[in-house]
Write a structure and sequence with these properties.
Elements lengths: L3 E4 L9 H10 L5 E6 L11 H10 L4 E6 L7 H7 L1 E7 L6 H10 L3 E6 L17 E5 L14 H14 L5 E5 L7 H7 L3 E4 L1 H4 L4 H9 L3
Parallel strand pairs: 1-8, 2-3, 3-4, 4-5, 5-6, 6-7, 7-8
């Protein structure tokens, strides 16, 4: 399975949002990762429906929307209308996770479940059949530019084994501190989708940076 790259628009220059989205359109990125933070589930606030809609107006790549919010069920339909094609909710934020994932799929979106660094991936065993993608946080969610947590690599291996044993095609997405040094280790362990924010947008040549991540051997 080829590696998919999902640059995080949270690290973009918001004064030139259209230009940044058009750059991603011209790149080898597979998705545009959209981080939604409410200041409650995580200690930061990002943006909501209007900005998501603005991104969608210019995007030629699917929007991979990551909801770092409490009670995400209240907003699933709105984010679908705003342009989300993949919606990931946090295991830690959902009381009835199975129902939430089914709701996402009923909207015609791919369903993802995200887990924080401290959450054992074994907690996902009973809902993997309902999930198109598992998003493993490799930093504590809330802020960009954090240092990658090395234990993530062993979590990827265990999750990849669980998925294979069930005969599923569930994607494994990694979000947080991904760079040229740890990306090969993550892919070798079984990761399929790499989210990169600061590493892409702070580079001298973001399109080349995305290309290099995409073509890891």
């Amino acid at each position: 399975m080829s590696i998919k790259i999902a640059p995080s628009i949270l690290a973009a220059d918001f004064a030139n949002l259209q230009k940044e989205v058009e750059m991603l359109n011209a790149s080898e990125a597979d998705y545009i990762h959209v981080d939604i933070m409410d200041g409650v589930f995580v200690p930061n606030i990002s943006f909501g429906f209007p900005v998501t809609e603005a991104i969608k107006r210019h995007a030629k790549k699917p929007l991979d929307v990551h909801l770092m919010i409490v009670d995400p069920d209240r907003y699933l339909e709105e984010f679908k209308k705003a342009g989300a094609e993949i919606i990931s909710v946090h295991y830690e934020a959902c009381v009835h996770l199975h129902r939430t994932l089914q709701h996402i799929r009923s909207l015609g979106c791919k369903a993802g479940v995200a887990v924080n660094p401290h959450t054992p991936i074994e907690h996902l065993e009973n809902i993997l059949e309902e999930v198109d993608m598992v998003l493993l946080m490799s930093v504590n969610p809330g802020f960009g530019g954090q240092k990658f947590i090395p234990n993530t690599i062993s979590k990827v291996r265990r999750l990849s084994k669980m998925i294979a044993e069930k005969g599923l095609n569930t994607l494994i997405e990694i979000d947080g501190g991904v760079n040229q040094a740890n990306a090969p280790l993550l892919v070798e362990a079984g990761a399929n989708v790499l989210v990169a924010g600061n590493f892409v947008f702070s580079s001298e040549n973001p399109i080349l940076t995305i290309k290099n991540l995409k073509n890891l051997q």
